[in-house]
Amino acid sequence: LSWSEALLLGVFPPIRLEINDSEGHPSSSHQTLKGTSKWATSLESLLEDPEGVKRFREFLKKEFSEENVLFWLACEEFKKTQGKKQMQEKAKEIYMTFLSSKASSQVNVEGQSRLSETILETPHPLMFQKLQDQIFNLMKYDSYSRFLKSDIFLNHKKSEEQEENSPEAQTAAKRASRIYNT
């Protein structure tokens, strides 16, 4: 399974983003929320959660723009790549999959921001950052707000709420509180 195939299949590790408050300290409010409640706080929180990414991809697929989140994820993985040879291979894969005029999953970025193939010879971890930021902003200000109103999100939220309110969940919570309060 190649790196891009794994990405397209959704087989990738969760991405850890640090979210900071206005003073630049790590935010603690995001750590207590789970599932759809966490996803609704920000696109960053959604992209931290593998289930959130899965649901967002499902939504974007219906909107014919799944390539945006796939490109963003590929760039996040690329930043972690070690070694010049590996970096060259992954950079070329990202370029051929998302940025070239013949790309199978071409992302919509500003024309002058496109990279030429020559830059692939001397890759660096942040070489796609400007394009990744464009795609992130496109998702944040366009598709993310629609996702929060979508059936995919709302149905998932509803099923989470039903699970939380089920007698089994309440019994488990009571057992846990008895264990910790003794």
From TrEMBL:
For this chain, one GO molecular function annotation is: GTPase activator activity
Gene Ontology biological process terms, A to Z: regulation of G protein-coupled receptor signaling pathway
Which segments constitute the RGS domain? Answer: 42-153
Q: Which domain of life is it from?
A: Eukaryota
Q: Name one GO cellular component term.
A: nucleus
> Sorted alphabetically, which keywords does the UniProt record give?
GTPase activation
Q: Does the keyword Hydrolase apply?
A: no
**Does the keyword Oxidoreductase feature in the UniProt annotation?**
no
Q: Which Gene3D superfamilies match?
A: 1.10.196.10, Regulator of G-protein Signalling 4, domain 2 (1.10.167.10)
InterPro entries, sorted? RGS, RGS10/12/14-like, RGS10_RGS, RGS_sf, RGS_subdom1/3, RGS_subdomain_2
Q: Where is this region: Disordered?
A: 158-182
Entry-linked Pfam families: RGS
Q: Which PANTHER family match?
A: REGULATOR OF G-PROTEIN SIGNALING LOCO
Q: What is the name listed in the Swiss-Prot or TrEMBL entry for this protein?
A: RGS10 protein
Gene name? Rgs10
